Amino acid sequence: MAREYDVVILGGGTGGYVAAIRAAQLGLKTALVEKGHLGGTCLHKGCIPSKALLKSAEVFDTAKNKAAQFGVDTKEVTLDFSRVQARKEAIVKQLHGGVTALMKKGKIDVFEGLGRMLGPSIFSPMPGTISVEMNNGDENEMLILKNLIIATGSRPRTLPGLEIDEQQVLSSDGALAMETLPQSMIIVGGGVIGIEWASMLNDFGVDVTVLEYAEQIIPTEDEDISKEMKKLLTKKGVTFATSAKVLPETLVKNGDSVTISAEINGEMKVFTADKLLVSVGRQANIEGIGLDNTDIEIENGVIKTRPTFQTKEHHIYAIGDVIGGLQLAHVASHEGIAAVEHIANMKNEPIDYTKISRCIYSSPEASSVGLTEQQAKAQGFHVKIGKFPFMAIGKALVNGNSDGFVKIVADKYTDDILGVHMIGAHVTDLISEAGLAMVLDATPWEVASTIHPHPSLSEVMGEAALAVDGQAIHM
């Protein structure tokens, strides 16, 4: 059967379903095609389930190792990992139901199946008509469209030669599905996802070793944040090896353990653990969706787009992980909204990616927006730095989590805020003030002039802003 739409979205992840909702709000007849579950990677295999596990790990660690400092005697603390997983699944199920309800509310037609783009045909002189191979076995649906948005997302990447079996050698997908915790884990990759898993597993009592190819963990973040994260996680018991070139050909599976070698500063070292988690980034899902039936260009493994998110086929747009850049759920959502609004001939400003907040949900958390100190200097800025520790914030001491700091990077001559970097408890909830300050082109003085409530963790932002010019009150 052939159906006609103003907009069809290929992929029902965060970017896709948000784009569908915005299109419906603007009165566009909209369809969404999803081969798996609505909500995509973020809801089912990424953001939400991993954060649910991280919260359980935090609670377990608090009860086991920190409750006594609050005068709470917890006696023997045990972990029921099956209930941890059940809680995770319940949260995912609830949110999935919410997304499904939003599709019905917007009168968005959802097709559950594998969608592929066709070339010019009897259905349309333009490429992009979607043929949906339905999951339920019904005959294919043909979706004739005026505009298409590709939002097919990404999947875990691996190293050549390092085969993932999801039993002993895991991707993040397989790790989320573990029914029992191993006693030890090697994590290949010390980026955002690797650090979140290292923190979580360590809090659950797993012996964790992280092997990172770069000279520092979380290499995209400010050096001060990287050093502090490594220091604090090492103190908790995580082992790190940086400048580590993992050799996939040395992988040996011994039934109940895995062994792999890495070259570190010219020296070969062997690492052994129950399981190995590969966390070396994500790759775009561009295979099998009919790109070869169009003139859409691929560059460095992702779909090439304009600032309007149009591909070389002007009626076909692409958003989210499939176009590379910041592979974050909130980025995909806003790209989806921008693409739909362009389709609807609305005028909006291009997304400024330097003003998008980035978060790491480990324990401690880290968050940032804008340029690192190193990036700012490399771009020719003369910088001044304001840095303030949580240990001088009353609410942090009350909460029992006073590790970490906030760092503000500002232009020495214009006073513009160039970047803000945080590490410590709840900083993923604090970073939006910094993001708003950058959007509004605020100066440190203006941030400091905002009266922050006492006692609150937000006071650290005001103090760090004062520290830029050496005027911090409590330090």
Provide a descriptive summary of the structure in words.
It is a single chain. With 475 residues, the protein is α/β, with parallel strands linked by helices. It folds into 3 domains: 2-45 and 86-155 and 283-353, 3-Layer(bba) Sandwich (FAD/NAD(P)-binding domain), CATH 3.50.50.60; 169-280, FAD/NAD(P)-binding domain, CATH 3.50.50.60; 364-467, FAD/NAD-linked reductase, C-terminal dimerisation domain (Enolase-like, domain 1, 2-Layer Sandwich). The chain is built from 13 helices and 23 strands. The chain has helices spanning 14-25, 40-44, 47-66, 81-105, 172-176, 192-203, 223-236, 329-343, 373-378, 394-399, 427-439, 444-449, 459-467; strands at 2-10, 30-34, 109-117, 130-134, 141-150, 154-156, 169-170, 184-188, 207-211, 239-241, 244-253, 258-264, 267-273, 275-278, 282-284, 298-299, 302-303, 316-318, 358-360, 365-370, 383-389, 405-411, 417-424. It has a 5-stranded mixed β-barrel with strand order 1-2-3-4-5. Strands 7-14-8-9-10 form a 5-stranded parallel β-sheet. A hairpin with a 6-residue loop joins strand 4 (130-134) and strand 5. Helix 1 (14-25) packs parallel to helix 8 (329-343) and helix 3 runs parallel beside helix 6 (192-203). The radius of gyration is 24 Å and the shape is globular. The termini are far apart. The relative contact order is 0.12.
